[in-house]
Design brief:
Layout lengths: L2 H56 L3 H12 L4 E8 L4 E4 L15 E4 L3 E10 L2 E11 L1 H51 L15 H47 L3 E6 L4 E5 L2 H6 L3 H5 L3 H5 L4 H15 L2 E9 L5 E11 L2 E8 L1 H60 L1 H11 L1 H32 L8 E3 L1 H11 L1 H4 L3 E7 L5 E3 L1 H22 L3 E9 L3 E8 L29 H11 L3 E7 L3 E9 L3 H6 L1
Helix pairs in contact: 1-2, 1-3, 3-4, 9-10, 9-11, 11-12, 12-14, 14-15
Length: about 625
C-alpha cells in the first residue's frame, strides 16, 4: 500500500468521523428543538381552548363546546381532543378520545408517548375546576421534519467530506511525489548506482530538508567510495605481493604445507618440498592410506588417537610421527595444524636432526646416569665379592686341611684322631657348605646387578616392542639402590598388568629419573623416608605411581616442573632436564604424567600408559 493511499485513507477516516459527529449532534439538537416547539404549541392550545370553554362549561353550553372542539380538531397536528367533567365523565370529544388522567389537574400538564404528546388543561371558574380538556398532538410531522433535516445534513456533510478527501488526495500526491523521488534515488544508491544527479530540494519544508540531507549523504558516499576504492586497490596490490612472498617462502623452505582430511585419512594438498624431504613425490602423498603404509605398524593409529584427543580441547593440534623415506631411512615430522570441519591445515616440519640430537642426549643422559651409579654399583658388587672371596678362601683352607686329614688316614689311626682335633672337623663339616652357599649367593647377586646394568644401559631401541612394566621397575630399583638405600626404605606393590607397547630403554630412564628425584627430595627434607612404587591395571591402561615422603613441591613452581632447564635445586645439583625428558617420553608412548604434592609431606608422580593393543581398539 502506497504512502499516498495511506494518507488519503487517514484523511477519509478523520472526515467520516467528523461528519458522523456533526450529523449526530445536529440531529439531536433539531429533535430537541422540534419537541420543544410541539410542546409549546400544545400548551398554548390548551390554555386558549381552556379559556374559551370556561363560559360554555359554566352554562352547560354543549353547542359552543362542540364548536370549539371541532375548530381545534381541524388542525392536522391534533389527532384527539375531548372534554371531561371533574368526575371523569366525557362531556364532548372526538373519536378516538384520549384517556383521562387519574385526577383533575390544577394546571396545564403534558404526557409524552412515542406517537403523540397529550396535554391536560383545567377548565375552571371562580369556584374551582369544572372540567378538564385533553388534547393529543401527533409527533409524526415532527419526525418527518427531523428525517428531512437529517438527510439534508448527511448530504451536505458527505459532499464536504468528498471535497476534503479530494483535497487530501491532491495534497498527499504533491507531498508523496517528492518523497517518491527521494525513495527512488535511495533505491538506486542502495543498488550501487551513484551516478544519479542531486535532487532539487524544492520548498523549505521537512521534505525539502530530507532531500537536502540526501544530497549531502550522496556526496559523502561518493567520496567514501572513491577512498575505499583506492584503499582496496592498494591492499590488493599488497596482498598479491604478500601472496607471492608467502608462496616463495612456502615452496622454498623445508617445512611442508599440507591439507589433510581426517575423516577419509588422506592428503588433499601437499607442498612440493615433500619429495625433497622424504623422496616420495606429491602423487604418492595424495593417494589414500599413504601415512598408514609408510609409518610403522600401529603408529598411525596412535598418532591419529593423539590428534583426536587434542581436538577435544581445541582446533589446534601438535603431534610428531615418523615415516619411511624412499631410501629406507626414518624421517621424523612434526605437525603444527588447525582442524576445521575435520580438515587439518598446517605445516610439516622435518625434525629428524632434532630427534637424533634428542636420542644422543638421552643416550648421554643414560650413560651419565650409569656413570653416576657406577660408584654405588661398585660398592654393591664389592660386598658380595668380598664375602664370596672370604668364603672361597675359607673353603680352600678347609680343603687343604681335609686333604691333609686324608693323608693322615693313610698313615695310621692315632695320628688321625690328633689331626681331627687339630683341624676341628665338626666345625669344618658345618661351615664349609655355608661358606660355599654364601659364595654362590654373592655370585648370583653380582650377575643380577650386571644384568640390570646391561638392560638399563642398552642402546636406544627404535622399534616399539612389548614391555613388561613390572620387570622394568624391578631392574631400575636394582641399579638405583645406591641412590636411595641410605635415605629411604622402598615399598613395592606390583599387580598383574598387561604389557605395553614401548621402547624399554626410554621408559627405564623415566623410572630412574623419578626414583632419583624422590631420593633427593627425602634428602632435602632430612631424616629417613619411604619411597612407594606401585603398578596397577586400570581401564585398558597401566598406571605406575612413585611416591615419596620428601619435602614436596612449592605451590609457586608447580606449573613449571616439566619445563626444560627448570630446577628448584642449588646450582650444580640439578639440570632441570629429567622431568622434561620424562614427560616427552611418556607422551611419545601415548601416555600421560601428572603429580600431586604437599609441601613438607611428599610428592606422588603418576604415569599412565595405554596397554598393548588398547590404543588401536579405542581408535577403531
Amino acid at each position: 500500500m502506497s504512502l499516498r493511499l495511506k494518507l488519503s485513507m487517514a484523511i477519509a477516516v478523520i472526515c467520516l468521523f467528523t461528519v458522523g459527529t456533526v450529523v449526530a449532534v445536529r440531529t439531536v439538537t433539531h429533535r430537541h428543538e422540534a419537541e420543544a416547539e410541539l410542546q409549546r404549541k400544545a400548551e398554548v392550545y390548551a390554555q386558549l381552548l381552556g379559556r374559551q370553554l370556561e363560559e360554555a362549561v359554566a352554562y352547560d353550553d354543549l353547542t359552543t363546546v362542540r364548536e370549539v372542539l371541532e375548530s381545534a380538531g381541524s388542525d392536522p397536528d391534533v389527532t384527539e381532543i375531548a372534554l371531561y367533567d371533574d368526575d371523569g365523565r366525557l362531556i364532548e370529544g372526538s373519536d378516538p378520545r384520549p384517556e383521562p388522567w387519574g385526577g383533575v389537574p390544577r394546571v396545564v400538564a403534558s404526557r409524552w408517548s412515542k406517537e403523540a404528546v397529550v396535554i391536560a388543561a383545567p377548565v375552571a371558574s371562580h369556584q374551582g375546576p369544572r372540567a378538564v380538556l385533553y388534547l393529543s398532538l401527533s409527533t409524526e410531522r415532527t419526525r418527518h421534519q427531523l428525517l428531512r433535516a437529517l438527510w439534508v445534513s448527511c448530504a451536505v456533510s458527505f459532499a464536504l467530506m468528498a471535497l476534503a478527501i479530494a483535497a487530501g488526495w491532491l495534497f498527499a500526491g504533491v507531498a508523496v511525489r517528492r518523497l517518491q523521488w527521494v525513495a527512488t534515488a535511495a533505491d538506486r544508491v542502495a543498488a550501487g548506482d551513484l551516478a544519479i544527479e542531486p535532487l532539487a530540494p524544492g520548498a523549505a519544508d521537512e521534505v525539502g530538508r530530507l532531500t537536502a540531507g540526501f544530497n549531502v549523504m550522496l556526496n559523502r558516499i561518493r567520496t567514501e567510495q572513491e577512498r575505499l576504492a583506492e584503499l582496496v586497490e592498494a591492499r590488493t596490490t599488497e596482498l598479491k605481493a604478500s601472496h607471492e612472498q608467502l608462496k616463495q617462502i612456502a615452496e622454498t623452505t623445508r617445512a611442508i604445507p599440507f591439507e589433510y582430511d581426517l575423516a577419509h585419512h588422506r592428503f588433499t594438498y601437499v607442498g612440493p618440498q615433500c619429495a625433497q624431504v622424504t623422496g616420495h613425490p606429491a602423487s604418492d602423498w595424495l593417494a589414500a592410506g599413504f601415512l598408514d603404509r609408510t609409518m610403522a605398524a600401529g603408529e598411525y593409529a596412535l598418532a591419529l588417537a593423539d590428534v583426536r584427543a587434542q581436538l577435544v580441547r581445541g582446533p589446534q593440534y601438535d603431534t610428531e610421527f615418523r615415516l619411511r623415506a624412499v631410501d629406507g631411512r626414518w624421517v621424523y615430522l612434526r605437525t603444527l595444524a588447525t582442524a576445521v570441519d575435520d580438515v587439518g591445515r598446517g605445516m610439516l616440519l622435518d625434525v629428524t636432526e632434532r630427534k637424533q640430537l634428542e636420542s644422543e642426549l638421552q643416550s648421554a643422559q643414560r650413560l651419565e646416569s650409569v656413570g653416576r651409579l657406577a660408584a654405588g654399583i661398585a660398592h654393591e658388587i664389592n660386598t658380595p665379592v668380598q664375602f664370596s672371596n672370604d668364603s672361597v678362601i675359607f673353603a680352600k683352607e678347609a680343603w687343604v686341611e681335609l686333604v691333609g686329614l686324608l693323608d693322615e688316614y693313610r698313615q695310621g689311626r692315632p695320628a688321625l684322631e690328633a689331626r681331627e682335633q687339630a683341624i676341628d672337623l665338626e666345625y669344618l663339616r658345618e661351615n664349609v657348605p655355608r661358606s660355599l652357599d654364601r659364595a654362590v649367593d654373592g655370585l648370583h647377586r653380582i650377575a643380577e646387578i650386571v644384568r640390570s646394568m646391561k638392560a638399563f644401559a642398552q642402546a636406544e631401541q627404535v622399534e616399539m616392542t612389548s614391555y613388561d612394566v613390572r620387570e622394568g621397575l624391578s631392574t631400575t630399583l636394582t641399579i638405583a639402590k645406591n641412590e636411595y638405600k641410605y635415605v629411604a626404605d622402598v615399598q613395592t606393590r606390583f599387580d598383574e598388568v598387561s604389557p605395553v607397547l614401548a621402547r624399554p630403554g626410554e621408559l627405564n630412564q623415566v623410572w630412574l629419573s623419578l626414583l632419583t628425584n624422590a631420593a633427593q627430595a627425602i634428602t632435602e627434607r632430612g631424616g629417613r623416608g619411604t619411597i612407594t612404587v606401585a603398578c596397577e591395571a586400570r581401564a585398558d591402561a597401566v598406571v605406575v605411581s612413585i611416591a615419596d615422603t620428601g619435602c614436596g613441591i612449592p605451590d609457586g613452581v608447580r606449573g613449571r616442573v616439566f619445563d626444560p632447564f627448570f630446577t628448584t635445586r642449588a646450582v650444580g645439583k640439578g639440570k632441570g632436564q629429567s622431568l622434561a625428558m620424562a614427560r616427552a617420553v611418556v607422551q611419545r608412548h601415548g601416555g600421560a604424567i601428572s603429580f600431586e604434592s604437599k609441601v613438607g609431606e611428599g610428592t606422588t608422580f603418576v604415569v599412565t600408559l595405554p596397554a598393548e593393543g588398547s590404543a588401536l581398539e579405542r581408535v577403531a
